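# nightly structure sweep
# worker-07 picked up a monomer target from the shared queue
# config: single-sequence mode, recycle default, output format = structure tokens
# input follows
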Amino acid sequence: MKPFAVRRWLFAVLIFASSVQAAQKVDIVIRDGTIVTMAGPNIPNGGVAIDKGKIVAVGDVSQYVSTTTIDAHGNAVLPGFVNTHTHVAMVLFRGIADDRDLMDWLQHYIFPAEAKNVTAEFVKWGTRLAAAEMIQSGTTTFTDMYYFESEVAAEAKRAGLRGVVGETLIDFPAPDNKTWDAAVAYIRNFVKQWHGDPLITPALAPHSPYLVSREHLQQTRRLADELHVPILIHVSETRDELRQVAEKQNGLLPGLYLDSIGFLAHDVIAAHGVWLSPEEIRVFAQRGVGIAHCPESNEMLASGMAPVADMLRAGINVGLGTDGPAGSNNNLDMVEEMASAARLQKIKMMDPKALSARKVLEMATIGGARVLGMEQKIGTLEPGKQADVVIVNLQQAKTQPVYAVESAIVYAASGSSVITTICDGKILMRDGKVRTVDVPAAIAKAKQYRDQVVKSLQ
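# output follows
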């Protein structure tokens, strides 16, 4: 080789070596998508670098290299969705009793079906099927309220999902605990088992102010303070609830009744809030209570339209929830939930600007994180936060052309438009293929349970 050629070759080697040295190796690099950070303006043709479960860079990721590089060209990259209220194992009752009001649905269908069918194994398989559905539609954090919640926690962790998991407390025999004292003992063990887990947050879940006594609600408050766990509860879902509570509590509205007994605090997540009065909204804001707004459930059961715009204006943290997928919604699709939330508020307020696509996208991400007290960990794409990231396919016929990314996601896409789901830096689904749940096995088991449920109710 001639001297000049040798020098040129050495120079090229040195340049290559220095570029490799300058590059930083990370676990995952997402490139060339529209980054919807939810912490500031969108970043076109940007990326996200992920290492050891956390986001290390957003926007320009040219200095990062990885053996796992995801091309997001033409698609949206955004925080994983936060479902602030559901009962995931109820997927195994999906469609069992549609087109009924809440009390008819509960008393004549759900409670009898649960009494005859719900076991730890039932909850395990229901949660497994629900985990697949949530991963496929971009949910990375869910808030649950059901029975055998240790099974829910174990299945969520196995699937790689983040969960706030609340064991139900109720004033009649439940499938897992036949007495109140048994439920309290279960909860103590449950909280001890999952305390400090990076993905699972144990919680207490007294059903509602009409199915849990004053004494037991106050005991729940004390227990939450002692164990340092949040409280999940249904509040002011229907007009019938208002009547039931008023008859027993000297005419008080549910929210004011809970406040009068010292129950409300910043660690309470109240589901629904459909019939909250202006005074209750003011009190909830003062106490720091978060609201899980469930528009599709409220539509399905004809419960009413929650005053979401008034809640937001008062400073209440409001997230979105799907509620249970068994007649009060029938799916766990947070993208559908966003569209319904926006459209319902437009009708309620008779104002097309009442709730924008950007605002409901906020409610489904950082808003939900605030409701759960997790805004420092999740809800936006920022360096230092946990890497909960989804990619939404905007190259479909139904999402094209794209003038505004938020509009395309909320009003045109659906949960099935999600193609990649990452939680805590782990890829749960890529290019539409779920990696952490055996989906065919979960579907097969669901069909077996359907036959069992039908037979049990004959």
